[in-house]
Amino acid sequence: AFQTVSVDGKGVAQVGGGARLGNIATSIYNQRKRALPHGVCPGVGIGGHATHGGYWYSSRRWGLTLDTIVGLDVVLANGSFIHATTTSYTDIFWALRGAADSIGIVTTFYFHTQAAPDSVVNWVYEIPMANPNVSANSFSHIQSFALNASVIDDRTGFGVTPSPSSFHISGTYHGDEATFRSKIAPEFLRTLPTPASTKIKTLSWLDSLADMWGRPLPQPLSGYNEHDDFYAKSILVPETAPLSPSALLRYFTYIATNGSSTPSWFSELNLLGGPASRINNPRYSSAYSARDSLWVLQHYATVPSSANGDTQPTIDFVNGLNDALGMGYGGYPNYVDPELSASQAHAVYYSQSVYERLVSIKTVVDPDGLFWNPQAVGV
To answer: Are 219 and 20 in contact (CB under 8 A)?
Structure first.
């Protein structure tokens, strides 16, 4: 039952709490040509993904995975089994969408799906960057593009993955390829260095997802064996205070100085906000706080086998990426930073008013703290 996926005639998908994203996407499309906004790593489980956010490029058009939840079957700390919605167990429904790890165990999700688009334009640019100044100036232009309502709307989503010498930029456009080539691409590329390579192609919905991940979507129902030893952090940049030229220069200087000597790392700067973004205009209120973000940054590095258990260099490198941009930003709950104390995590992942409401709900539904982790609500 935890792997079961079905879609009814109204487009509501019933998804077991143990299903993986690749299997969900494949199943709801094959059953009724439906789609959801969610990540494209097909082995990720729906449980944490949907209850703490759930982002990919289509989220600017349809919202986070969390925003599409219309019902949840939940086991609470006292052993009771409930169905939570906007009209039943409303406080619990609100809290589960943003902080489920502290509230209860979701056994079944109910999602409002979208009609899958007939086609999606996938696009990728590899752009050489001569030095940190070029990188900073280039990203400043990309940031201006992301805020330009005369060019971009909710049909465009993209992310930038920098290296010491280049930008890998990928995105999707929920429109026709001719419009992307004639309107979107020229403004995006204006003032940037000439791309070393360009890929623009029109694909079906499922092929678009598989192309972004670079592998088939279906995942084994048992025996899954993809794992990594890593450390990650995140930053949420508010739309009211975009990344400044000085912060960008520090950031890209750090990458140019330290990136080549650090094995197996990546940084992603993904667009959350901008004109018409549904992420910042959700249908339902929830405990997910960050509804004013322009960018979400993920900083991720794998601990090499040669480290013999010494994780500190990896942690130091990732911390350096965050520190280069300065302090005071929020974080994305699905990119958990285990180095944060409980109070730091609460401040990073939730606004004060949201956290206070979560504590009041937690006190009622889990007074003994059964659902505990080092950063749980109430710790």
So the answer is: yes
| Confidence at residue 217, expressed as pLDDT on a 0 to 100 scale | 96
Rounded (5°) CA angle 41-342-78 = 80
Segment (H or E) for 206: helix 205-213
Distances (CA, A) of 357 to 192, 288, 349, 351: 45, 12, 14, 10
Q: Are 146 and 280 in contact (CB under 8 A)?
A: no
- Within 8 A by CB and 6+ apart from 315, the residues are 231, 339
Question: CB neighbours of 206 closer than 8 A, spacing ≥ 6?
Answer: 25, 26, 29, 217
pTM for the full predicted model? 0.96
| Nearest-angstrom CA–CA distance, 325 and 242 | 11
The mean pLDDT of the chain is 97
Bridge partner residues of 160 (DSSP): 169, 269
Contact yes or no for 378/359 (Cβ under 8 A):
yes
pLDDT tens per residue across span 167-191: 999 999 999 999 999 999 999 999 9
Distance CA(142)–CA(164), nearest Å, equals: 18
**Residues 240-247: contacts with CB within 8 Å, 24+ apart?**
240/292, 242/143, 242/147, 242/294, 242/295, 243/139, 243/140, 243/143, 243/295, 243/325, 245/136, 245/137, 245/140, 247/324, 247/325, 247/326
Show Cβ contacts of residue 227 under 8 Å, excluding neighbours closer than 6 positions: none
Percent of the chain exceeding pLDDT 90 equals 95
Per residue in 283-342, pLDDT tens? 889 999 999 999 999 999 999 988 888 999 999 999 999 999 997 899 999 999 999 999
